[in-house]
C-alpha cells in the first residue's frame, strides 16, 4: 500500500494529504459515545450506520436462508422437517424481503453516503438531517419486520406479495399488515434519501467537476437514485393500496375485482424490474472503480459506459411485463415486452465488454477488492445469460415458477453483493483508517466463491423444482443437498469477512490516505478517515487537477447556509451543524405509530386489552411523530448550501427548491399509480359501465373553485412578501387555510351523505377507488394545511417579509401540485 | 407587481375552464358523443394543469430542466397506465 501522488483520471491530479486532523468537529460527541450515533447527521457517520445495519440484516436474512436449505435437504411433506408449512412460508417470504429491501440496497446506500460527497467535492449532503432521517426510517422499518414475527405471523405469501393471497381473507395476521407497513416506511426512507442525493450530486459538485468527468461510482449512484425515486413511488402506491385493503376493507385486490390480481403485478413489477438495476448499479459502479484502480487503466470506452448506464436506467421502466408472461395479459403486449427485454441486454453487453477490455489492457493486481470485483463480473455474466431464457415468452412459460428463476436471480443479485463486498474491502481503509488482513481477505474470497457456486449452480440443474415449496422430485435430491452444503460454506465466508474486518478495526495497521496505487478519485486525496468537513479547503478541478482553495480564494467552511427546514443564514462565513436528535425521534415514533396502527384490521381494532394496546400505541405514536416533525421543522440547523461549483442542469435553483421539485416528481408517480390503478380497474370493469360514485358533480366543482382560489391566495401571499407586507402575507395565508378547510368540510359532507345512502369504501371496486384516491388527495390537503398553520404563525411573527420568502414559494409549489392533482381527479371521479 | 394581473388572469381562466368541464357534462355531450366529450374534458384538464404549473409554479421562468424532471414522472405515469390498460384488452 502506498501513499503517493497519483494521476487522477476523474478531474486531474491531486496530492494525498496524510495526517489531516481527524476533527470531531466539536459539534458531536466522540465516536465511542452512543449519543453520537443517535444525533449525527454527518454523511460519513450515516454511511457507517447504513453499512453496519445492512450487515446485521444480511445475517438475519442469511439465517433464514440456512433454514430454507435445511428444510430442502430432502423432499418433505407438510409437517416434516424443522419447519412447519406455515413457518416455511414465512421464512421464504421474509428471506426475500429482507435481502432485497433491508440488506442489498441499504448496503449500497452506506457506501454512497460515505463516498459520493467525497468524490464530488461536497462537505456533506444537501440536507444532512433528512439524510439521518432516511437512515432512522430505514432502521424503524427493519424493526417493524422484526416485530411482525411476534404478531401472530409475519407475511407468508412470497416476497412479491402477489394478490389475492395478500388480502386478509388469505393472510389475516396482524404481523402481515406490519410487514406491509414496513415496506411503506422503507419507501418513505428511500424517497427522502433519493431527493437528497439527487439534489446533492446535481447541485454540489466542485468547480470543474462536470457530469462527464464524474467518477463512475457517483454516476452509477446518481442513476440509481433517479430510478429509486420513480420506481419506489410505484411500490409505495401499491403498498398503500394493499394496506387500505387490509386495514379499511377496500376491494382493489379482492378476488371479486376484475383484474385486481393483475393490477398488483403491474404495480409491483413496474417497481420490481428497475429494482434489479437499483440493486446492481451501485455494485457496477464500485466494480468499475476497482477495475480501474487494480488494472491501472482508465475504463475503456468511458463515455459509452456512461451512455449505456443511462440507457439501462431509462429502459428499466419499459420491461416490467416480462415478469408477467404467465398472467392473463395479451400476447401482443407480451411480444412487445419480450423485445424491450432483449433490448435492455444490449447496453449491458457493452458495459461487460468494456470491463473485460479494461482488464485486458491493464496490469492486474489481484488484491482482495479486485478478486471480489472480478468474481462479481463472472457471476453476473452467468446470471445475465440465464436471464435471457426468462425474457423469451415461450421459454418463460417453461421456466417461470421453477428453480431456474431462483438460480438466475441469485446469480444476478448476489453478484451485486459480491462486488459490494469488494467495495467494502476497497473503501475499508478509507472509512476506518485501518488496513485489513490481505491473506484472510483472499481466503474469504476463495471460500465465498466456492460456496456461492456450490449453492446456486446446482439449482439450475434442479430447475424442475417448483419455487416456494419444499416438496420436489427425488432425482433432484443430490443437487439440493449440494446446494445446502454450499449455503453453509457461503455462510462461513461471511463470518471470515466479518472476523477479518472486525479484527482489523481493533488491531489493524494504520492506513495511509491513499493506500491504492492508481486510484483516481477524490476520496483518496484526504486522510483516512477523512476529517469532519472532508477537505482542507474548497475542492476545485477548475485548473484540470484537484486542488483545495484556501481562505483567500474561498472560505473552507461554506459561504451560505442551506436551512434543511431550519433557519437560513446570510452570506457571512458560518459554522455548519452536524447533530440533531429529531431524525431519531421521528424514526422511533414511526415505529410506535406503525405498531399501533397495525392492529387496525378491516376497519376495527381487536377486542379487549389487545385492542386497547393497539389504540393507545397509535395515539402515542402519532402525537410523538407530529411533535418530532414540528421540532425538526423549528430547529435552528445550518447546513452547507454548496452551489459554488458545478450545478448543471440546475444552475440558479436553490437546494431546497430543487429538493421540492424532485420530491414532487416522485409524488407525480405516486398519484399517477393511484390514478393509473383507477383507470386500469375501470377498463377491466367496462369503461362506460363504470358510473361516478358521487351523483352530482356540483360539490366537486365547488371544491375545484375552492382549491383554485386557494392556489391564487398562496400566490398573493408571495406577492405580499415581496412588498414587505406582513398583514398581506398573514391575510393571504389565512385565506388559503380557510379555503383548504372549506374543501375538507365540503368533501366531508359529500362522504357523509354517501355513507348515509349506504355507499362506503368496502362496497365494491368503484367505491374503493373513489374513496381511496380522493382520500389520498385529502391527506395531502391536510398535510398542506398543517404547514399553512405553521407559516401563518411564523408570518405573524414577522417572517418572510425581509427578502427571505423562499419558504412561501416552496410551500406554494406543493400546494399548487395538490391543486393540479385535483384538476384531474375532479373530471375522473365526478364527470366522465 | 406586474405579475399580479397575470396571476389574476390565469385564475379567472382556470375558473372558467373548470366550469366548462361541468358544462360539457350538463349539456349532455357525454351521452351524445362520449369519446369526443371525454377527449374535450381531458384536454381542458391538461390545459388547466399546464397553466398552474407554468405560471403559479413559475415553471415558465425556471430552468427548463425542472420541467423535464416533472415530465419524467408524468411519462412514468403514462407508460404504466397505458401499457397496463392495453395489456388486458
Please characterize this protein's 3D structure.
The complex is a heterodimer of chains A (832) and B (89). Chain A has 832 residues and is mainly alpha-helical. Helix content of chain A is 65%, strand content 2%. Chain A contains 21 helices and 6 strands. Chain A has helices at 34-39, 43-71, 85-120, 128-148, 174-203, 216-247, 260-295, 302-315, 331-361, 368-391, 393-399, 403-432, 438-461, 477-507, 582-597, 608-634, 655-685, 698-722, 726-756, 765-796, 806-831, and strands at residues 6-8, 12-14, 538-540, 547-549, 561-562, 639-640. In chain A, the strands form 3 sheets. A two-stranded antiparallel sheet of chain A has the order 1-2. Chain A has a two-stranded antiparallel sheet with strand order 3-4. In chain A, a hairpin with a 3-residue loop joins β1 and β2 (12-14). In chain A, α17 (655-685) runs parallel beside α21 (806-831). Chain A starts with 5 loop residues before the first strand and ends with a helix. Mean pLDDT of chain A is 93; it is low at 1-24 and 554-572. Chain B is flat. In chain B, α1 (2-26) packs antiparallel against α3. The longest helix of chain B has 25 residues, at 2-26. The relative contact order of chain B is 0.08. Chain B has helices at 2-26, 29-32, 34-56, 64-87. The model of chain B has no long low-confidence stretch (mean pLDDT 95). By secondary structure, chain B is mainly α. Classes of the chains: A mainly alpha (832), B mainly alpha (89). The interface between A and B is large, with 69 and 51 residues.
Amino acid at each position: 500500500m502506498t501513499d503517493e501522488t497519483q494521476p487522477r483520471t476523474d478531474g486531474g491530479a491531486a496530492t494525498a494529504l496524510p495526517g489531516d486532523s481527524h476533527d470531531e468537529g466539536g459539534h458531536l460527541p466522540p465516536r465511542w459515545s452512543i449519543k453520537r450515533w443517535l444525533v449525527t447527521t454527518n454523511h460519513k457517520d450515516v454511511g457507517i450506520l447504513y453499512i453496519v445495519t445492512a450487515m446485521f440484516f444480511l445475517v438475519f436474512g442469511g439465517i433464514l436462508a440456512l433454514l430454507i436449505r435445511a428444510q430442502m435437504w430432502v423432499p418433505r411433506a407438510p409437517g416434516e422437517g424443522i419447519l412447519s408449512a406455515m413457518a416455511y412460508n414465512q421464512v421464504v417470504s421474509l428471506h426475500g424481503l429482507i435481502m432485497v429491501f433491508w440488506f442489498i440496497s441499504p448496503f449500497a446506500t452506506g457506501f454512497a453516503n460515505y463516498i459520493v460527497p467525497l468524490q464530488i467535492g461536497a462537505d456533506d449532503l444537501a440536507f444532512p438531517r433528512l439524510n439521518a432521517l432516511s437512515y432512522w426510517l430505514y432502521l424503524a422499518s427493519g424493526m417493524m419486520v422484526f416485530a411482525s414475527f411476534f404478531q401472530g405471523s409475519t407475511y407468508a405469501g412470497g416476497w412479491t406479495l402477489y394478490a389475492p393471497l395478500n388480502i386478509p381473507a388469505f393472510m389475516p395476521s396482524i404481523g402481515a399488515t406490519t410487514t406491509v407497513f414496513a415496506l411503506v416506511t422503507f419507501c418513505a426512507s428511500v424517497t427522502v434519501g433519493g431527493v437528497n442525493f439527487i439534489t446533492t450530486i446535481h447541485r454540489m459538485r466542485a468547480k470543474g467537476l462536470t457530469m462527464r468527468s464524474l467518477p463512475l461510482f457517483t454516476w452509477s449512484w446518481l442513476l440509481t437514485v433517479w430510478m429509486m425515486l420513480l420506481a419506489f413511488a410505484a411500490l409505495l402506491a401499491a403498498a398503500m393500496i394493499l394496506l387500505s385493503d387490509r386495514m379499511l376493507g377496500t376491494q382493489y385486490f379482492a378476488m371479486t375485482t376484475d383484474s385486481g390480481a393483475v393490477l398488483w403485478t403491474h404495480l409491483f413489477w413496474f417497481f420490481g424490474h428497475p429494482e434489479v438495476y437499483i440493486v446492481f448499479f451501485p455494485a457496477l459502479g464500485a466494480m468499475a472503480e476497482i477495475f480501474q484502480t487494480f488494472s491501472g487503466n482508465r475504463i475503456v470506452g468511458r463515455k459509452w459506459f456512461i451512455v449505456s448506464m443511462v440507457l439501462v436506467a431509462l429502459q428499466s421502466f419499459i420491461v416490467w411485463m416480462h415478469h408477467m408472461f404467465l398472467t392473463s395479459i395479451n400476447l401482443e403486449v407480451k411480444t412487445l415486452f419480450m423485445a424491450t427485454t432483449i433490448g435492455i441486454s444490449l447496453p449491458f453487453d457493452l458495459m461487460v465488454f468494456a470491463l473485460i477490455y479494461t482488464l485486458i489492457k491493464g496490469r492486474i493486481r489481484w488484491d482482495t477488492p479486485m478478486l471480489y470485483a472480478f468474481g462479481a463480473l463472472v457471476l453476473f455474466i452467468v446470471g445475465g445469460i440465464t436471464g435471457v431464457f426468462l425474457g423469451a415468452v415461450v421459454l418463460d412459460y417453461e421456466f417461470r415458477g421453477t428453480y431456474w428463476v431462483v438460480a438466475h436471480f441469485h446469480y444476478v443479485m448476489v453478484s451485486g453483493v459480491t462486488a459490494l463486498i469488494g467495495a467494502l474491502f476497497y473503501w475499508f481503509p478509507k472509512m476506518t483508517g485501518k488496513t485489513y488482513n490481505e491473506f484472510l481477505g483472499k481466503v474469504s474470497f476463495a471460500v465465498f466463491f466456492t460456496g456461492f457456486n456450490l449453492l446456486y449452480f446446482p439449482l439450475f440443474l434442479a430447475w424442475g423444482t417448483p419455487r416456494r415449496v419444499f416438496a420436489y422430485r427425488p432425482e433432484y435430491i443430490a443437487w439440493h443437498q449440494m446446494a445446502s452444503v454450499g449455503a453453509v460454506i457461503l455462510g462461513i465466508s461471511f463470518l471470515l469477512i466479518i472476523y477479518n474486518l472486525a479484527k482489523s478495526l481493533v488491531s489493524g495497521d494504520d492506513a495511509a490516505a491513499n493506500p491504492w496505487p492508481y486510484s483516481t478519485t477524490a476520496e483518496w486525496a484526504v486522510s483516512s478517515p477523512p476529517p469532519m468537513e472532508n477537505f482542507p479547503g474548497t475542492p476545485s478541478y477548475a485548473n484540470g487537477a484537484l486542488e483545495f482553495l484556501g481562505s483567500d480564494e474561498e472560505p473552507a467552511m461554506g459561504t451560505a447556509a442551506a436551512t434543511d427546514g431550519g433557519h437560513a443564514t446570510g452570506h457571512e462565513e458560518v459554522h455548519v451543524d452536524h447533530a440533531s436528535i429529531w431524525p431519531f425521534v421521528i424514526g422511533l415514533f414511526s415505529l410506535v405509530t406503525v405498531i399501533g396502527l397495525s392492529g387496525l384490521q378491516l376497519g376495527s381494532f381487536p377486542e379487549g386489552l389487545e385492542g386497547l394496546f393497539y389504540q393507545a400505541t397509535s395515539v402515542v405514536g402519532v402525537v410523538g411523530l407530529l411533535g418530532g416533525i414540528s421540532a425538526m421543522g423549528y430547529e435552528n440547523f445550518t447546513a452547507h448550501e454548496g452551489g459554488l461549483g458545478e450545478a448543471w442542469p440546475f444552475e440558479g435553483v436553490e437546494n431546497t427548491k430543487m429538493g421540492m421539485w424532485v420530491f414532487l416528481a416522485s409524488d407525480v408517480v405516486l398519484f399517477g399509480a393511484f390514478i393509473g390503478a383507477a383507470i386500469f380497474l375501470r377498463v377491466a370493469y367496462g369503461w362506460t359501465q363504470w358510473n361516478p360514485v358521487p351523483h352530482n358533480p356540483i360539490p366537486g366543482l365547488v371544491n375545484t373553485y375552492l382549491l383554485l382560489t386557494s392556489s391564487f391566495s398562496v400566490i398573493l401571499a408571495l406577492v405580499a412578501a415581496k412588498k414587505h407586507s406582513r398583514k398581506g402575507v398573514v391575510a393571504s395565508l389565512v385565506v388559503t387555510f380557510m379555503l383548504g378547510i372549506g374543501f375538507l368540510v365540503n368533501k366531508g359532507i359529500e362522504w357523509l351523505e354517501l355513507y348515509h345512502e349506504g355507499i362506503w369504501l368496502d362496497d365494491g371496486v368503484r367505491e374503493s377507488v373513489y374513496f381511496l384516491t380522493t382520500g389520498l388527495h385529502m391527506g395531502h390537503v391536510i398535510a398542506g394545511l398543517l404547514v399553512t398553520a405553521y407559516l401563518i404563525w411564523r408570518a405573524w411573527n414577522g417572517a418572510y417579509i425581509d427578502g427571505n420568502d423562499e419558504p412561501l414559494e416552496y410551500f406554494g409549489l406543493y400546494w399548487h401540485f395538490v391543486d393540479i392533482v385535483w384538476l384531474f381527479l375532479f373530471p375522473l371521479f365526478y364527470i366522465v | 407587481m406586474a405579475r399580479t394581473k397575470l396571476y389574476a388572469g390565469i385564475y379567472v381562466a382556470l375558473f372558467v375552464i373548470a366550469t366548462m368541464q361541468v358544462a360539457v357534462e350538463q349539456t349532455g355531450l357525454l351521452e351524445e358523443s362520449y369519446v369526443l366529450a371525454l377527449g374535450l374534458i381531458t384536454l381542458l384538464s391538461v390545459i388547466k394543469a399546464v397553466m398552474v404549473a407554468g405560471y403559479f409554479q413559475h415553471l415558465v421562468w425556471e430552468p427548463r430542466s425542472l420541467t423535464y424532471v416533472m415530465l419524467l414522472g408524468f411519462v412514468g405515469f403514462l407508460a404504466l397506465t397505458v401499457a397496463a390498460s392495453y395489456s388486458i384488452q
